[in-house]
Amino acid sequence: MTAVASRPVTADTGNRSPGSTWHTLSPLLAAVLAAVGAWAVHRLFVGTPLGQELDTAALRGGDFDHPRVSEVLTRTLDATRLAVLALVCVLAAVFGVLRRRLDLAVASAFLVVAANVITQQLKANLDRPLLDAFPAPNSWPSGHATAAASAAFVLVLVFPRALRGTVGLVGAGYVAIVAVATVWAEWHRPSDVIAALLIVLACGCLTVFGVRLRRTGPAPRIHLPNRLVMVVLGAAAAIATAAGIFGMASVALSERALPDLVSGRFAFLTGTAGIVAATAATFIVWVRLTAGEPAPLKGDKE
Q: Measured between alpha carbons, how far is 264 from 270 in angstroms, rounded to an integer?
């Protein structure tokens, strides 16, 4: 009697599990939320009188009279865009070749180009209504903050997953310094910087979405160093957010009801707290997205 061998059961690779589908689509949702956040920042701090007053108070409160510091600061900010972006693009290409990850090299180029082009187009085409008796051309969003954040995001993306949290923590510190410096130098208002961070995050989320479309699979477990980095960034975001909310309430009260309640320097520190909170929050999302990338494809290096 001949036994009939049973047909082996094979997995249907064309179907994705709900968890895998969510893992693939979640960056797209994050991109939409980041874009909506940038719109809300513009609507509040550019489109309303009180928002403009708060923003301008932080800008003018950063005034300082240190010629040597001002010179170094100006040179650093001048070099941020071209030098940093060129260096990062080269590094991304080299890392992509060495790790056999052409998708990350292409994604990095898209992130840098898209974020900086969008920022420059918005700055050139948006008007700033005069609602706070402080005439100044539109500076929303910040090109310097966009350049710094996109460079840091690219470095996080091209490094191996186990190191992305550490690189993200260093990158967040660098971006926060550049962002606060632009306000201190009176080049940008805090809302310009916060919007730039959200624009970069939106573009970054789109790049991760594209990468995950090619590299389907469930979300892997995040390495302990990356989790620790998110705890540090989370603590910084929570403290800075609390300080920023208290500061904005105090500055708003000073602007509308009790003049001279707080000093200009206090307003500047309030704007700084808002920038730190936004920087920490955007890097939490970015580290989480990049650290949760599916397992490498055959032939890739991780």
A: 10
d(CA 166, CA 229): 7
Phi and psi based region of residue 127 (left: phi greater than 0; alpha: psi -120 to 50; beta: remaining):
beta
Domain ranges of the chain: 21-291
Long-range contacts of 105-110 (CB under 8 A, 24+ apart): 105/158, 107/157, 107/207, 107/208, 107/210, 107/211, 108/154, 108/157, 108/158, 108/207, 110/203, 110/206, 110/207, 110/210
CA 151 to chain centre: 10
Each residue's pLDDT tens digit, 147-203:
999 999 998 998 888 888 999 999 999 999 889 988 988 889 999 999 999 999 999
Q: What whole-number distance in Å separates Cα of residue 167 and Cα of residue 220? A: 19
Single out the residue of 248, 249, 236, 250 nearest to residue 278, CA to CA.
Answer: 236
Q: Which of 105, 99, 140 is nearest to 119 (CA)?
A: 140
Q: How many CA atoms lie within 13 A of 10 on its CB side?
A: 4
Instruction: Spell out the residues 6+ positions from residue 78 whose beta carbon is closer than 8 angstroms to its own.
Output: none
Using an 8 Å Cβ cutoff, are 38 and 203 in contact?
no
User: How far is 169 from 174, CA to CA, in rounded Å?
Assistant: 9
Which two structure tokens, joined as six digits, stand for 194? Answer: 């916060």
What does the block give as tokens for 96? Answer: 């992509």
| One-letter amino acid for residue 155 of the chain | L
CA–CA dist 26, 218 (Å, integer): 12
Range in 79-93, 133-147, 165-179, 257-271 the model is least confident about? 79-93
Neighbours of 5 (CB within 10 A): 6
Alpha carbon distance 294, 188 (integer Å): 38
pTM of the model as a whole: 0.86
